[in-house]
Each structure stands twice: as C-alpha cells, then as structure tokens.
Amino acid sequence: PQNRRRDYAQKKMSETYMSIIQKRRESKTGEHEEDMIHNLMQCKYKDGNAIPDKEIAHMMIALLMAGQHSSSATESWITLRLASRPDIQDELLQEQKDMLGVNADGSIKELTYANLSKLTLLNQVVKETLRIHAPIHSILRKVKSPMPIEGTAYVIPTTHTLLAAPGTTSRMDEHFPDCLHWEPHRWDESPSEKYKHLSPTTALGSIAEEKEDYGLVSKGAASPYLPFGAGRHRCIGEQFAYVQLQTITATMVRD
C-alpha cells in the first residue's frame, strides 16, 4: 500500500501523545499547566464537549511538524542568501562581538535569549528572508456560506474553495521597492542613503499601526508583510520560529 511508512509513523506519534495525555489524566496533578498539552486538555468545544484525547494528540503532531519543516526550509534560504553576501556575514559577526562582548581568548561571549533582541541585523536577516521566501505559500478555505464581493455583482458560492497567498504582497514593489532584491538593510530604523530607497513604504489600507511597524509579530491583515498569517489564526509558533532561526543563524556565523 502507498504511504505505509508515513501512516505507521503517524500512528506511532499519535500513540506516544495519547500515552502522555493518559498518564497526565491519571496523575491529576497541575505540574504541566504551562505547556500546550495541558491547555488543550482543559479546552472545550462551543457545545461544551471536551476535546477528545485523539484530537489533542493529532493537534500536537500538527504543531510539531509545522514547526520542523517550515523552520528548516527558511534556515536553508538564510544560509543560501548569506553565502552570496560575505559582507553581511562579516557584519553579523561584528555585531555579535560589539553587542555580546569578547572573552580574553578572543572568543565571543555566550549567546542568550535575552541577548537576541540586541542583534538588530540578525533579526533583519531573518525578516528579509521570510519576506522573499514566505513559509506559507498558500492557504485554502472552503466557502461555508455565499460570499458577496463588495462593490461588485459577484457572489462566491459554497461550491468553491478560496486560495490566499500571504507572500504575494511582500513581493510587490508597491510595498517593498526592488522587492526581489534580498537586502536586510532595507529594515534599518534609520537607513543610510545607500538603502533608503529600499525601505518599506506603506501598509495596505494605510493602517497607521502597520505603517509604524511591519513587526516582529504581524498583527493586522492589512500589513503587506505576513509570513505567519494574521489575525486570530496567525501562526502560534511565530515567536518560537524567530528565536529558533536567529539562534541557528547566530551560531553558524560565530562558528
């Protein structure tokens, strides 16, 4: 049969999570209240029914796999882009020396979570890569009820499925001049004359909040920068993904 190994692996992962959930229900302790499994175990559907353990297990598999493949693909793009820009590599290394400090033996001091926020160019490298190589290339949504298109006579029927591509607007010159050119310095807070013409322009709909900050966390759907979606269904792993990508890139540069 097709996909035998995939199905077997999925079954084993499901059984692993089911076992963890069952043990927690039996122990009835609050020691895990800060993690995702515990929170899902407390959730209920709108009708008041608790989420079945099997569904919780499958949600955890989705979270695990989504965080693994999208981050690894993005890190590959970061590596490829840096390989073509030795000057950016040198700047990243110097940034760590300046912001983290250097030990007596010449090695750079330890990278910590608190220090990541100090590495501005590193953050911009990640943001610029996500802008051009969006991890979410398309989103499909089934039409549940007829959808009139404002200002037109069109109505999308329930027999249709809609496709949205969040990465489209981040590849438009209207919002990011010379949009296909990979340049982390376009995100500089006070860009020099060399990079000023590449600075992001305006948000869709001229939303003031989005004009001020295209953001580490993209809050509004009006922003042209949506690598992790927006609104209530924005990727819950966005912050973790940034930390993961920054840590891997910083380690690669210093080593």
Plain-language structure description:
- With 255 residues, this protein is mostly helical.
- It has 2 domains: 1-80, no CATH class; 120-241, no CATH class.
- 47% of the residues lie in helices and 5% in strands.
- The protein has helices spanning 4-27, 36-42, 53-83, 86-100, 113-116, 120-132, 193-196, 208-212, 238-254; strands at 139-142, 147-148, 155-156, 161-164.
- The strands form 2 sheets. It has a two-stranded antiparallel ribbon with strand order 1-4. A two-stranded antiparallel sheet has the order 2-3.
- Helix 2 (36-42) runs antiparallel to helix 3 (53-83), helix 3 crosses helix 6 and helix 3 (53-83) packs parallel to helix 9.
- The longest helix has 31 residues, at 53-83.
- The N and C termini lie far apart (45 Å).
Write the layout of secondary structure elements.
Layout: H1 4-27, H2 36-42, H3 53-83, H4 86-100, H5 113-116, H6 120-132, E1 139-142, E2 147-148, E3 155-156, E4 161-164, H7 193-196, H8 208-212, H9 238-254
Antiparallel strand pairs: 1-4, 2-3
Helix pairs in contact: 1-3, 2-3, 3-6, 3-9
